[in-house]
Amino acid sequence: MSDSNRSPAAPRPPLPGPLGRLAERAYLAALARRNQRFDAGAGVLHLPIPVISVGNLTVGGTGKTPMVQRIAQWLLDANLRPAIAMRGYRSTPDHPSDEHSEHLACFAGALPIIAQPDRAAGLRPLIASGAIDCAVLDDGFQHRQLARDLDAVLIDATQPLHAARCLPAGWLREPPSALARAHAVVLTRTSDAPPEALDALRSAVSAHAGSPPIAECAHAWDSLDSADAHRPIEWLASRRVIVACAVGNPGAFVRAAQRAGALVEATLLRRDHHAWNNADRRALERLTNNSLPVLTTMKDWVKWRRLNLGPLEHLFVRPRLTLQFSHGEDALRSRVLATARATPTPRAGVH
Length: 351
Known about the structure:
Elements: H1 17-39, E1 51-56, H2 64-77, E2 82-86, H3 98-107, E3 113-115, H4 119-129, E4 134-138, E5 150-156, E6 184-188, H5 195-209, E7 215-226, E8 230-231, E9 240-245, H6 250-259, E10 263-269, H7 278-288, E11 294-295, H8 298-304, E12 316-327, H9 329-341
Parallel strand pairs: 1-4, 1-5, 2-3, 2-4, 5-6, 6-7, 9-10, 9-11, 11-12
Antiparallel strand pairs: 7-8, 7-12
Helix pairs in contact: 3-8
């Protein structure tokens, strides 16, 4: 059983055929002109504090939110004063974006979180007051208007770089050659990729970035949250569930549920950043029949909970995602802390 009465599952399919390739060439030409300007320093703003960026090459999730949170926690543990700055995609004054809401829930006021397209403008008053001494950009690799001291780029190991195409013909925001700008590359979801695919990806990264990946990690669930309980992952074993999510890689979420032992009876999948609505709630009611648990992401839950869910609210279960490093965590942490503690190169200040 599955839902098929609405829009197709995330993400939006690429533009196919000759039309897609033609549009891709136009996109790449415009992107090259833009990057040439930034490479020359035109329109780049410099802050008088260290800036660490976390980003990726693809449309859709690679684990940026948990990585940003891990880096921010490293900085807090080192007695530094970071802020997180993000675009705040689809934010409103009354409803923060999904990633913004996740950061607010994670840090509960322990650090400032700026969510606005002009990230420098949001950071300026914090810098002037001395409230922060470093900044972490969430989804910052393509946000080149703000200079950064460390560019960490995440690559989903289940989506290899070879033969990948750029928007709108494919899922890449930039071609793999853009990795030459990266200071650190982190492969994510490595437990979902076969060994030969991982080896090929490592070689591809080395060819484009000039060095092998600095770190590798897997996405793992360490516990479950619901309306009335905090449960171990083992609660999912042999339990029938409905999966409802709107993320960049919904297949990875479904596979993670199955690895945890859940029996996925049906799915309700929407495109990344979808705003869940009452029509979705009714579709979910039909699927779960007010009895089966609904497994969703933390990112989705911040939008589901804005609806009047009624009895459905007690059926929702959210896994807590963590990154389990198999290689390079200490090296990445050391590089992050060294960057955040360094005295910035003399600059003209905040422009």
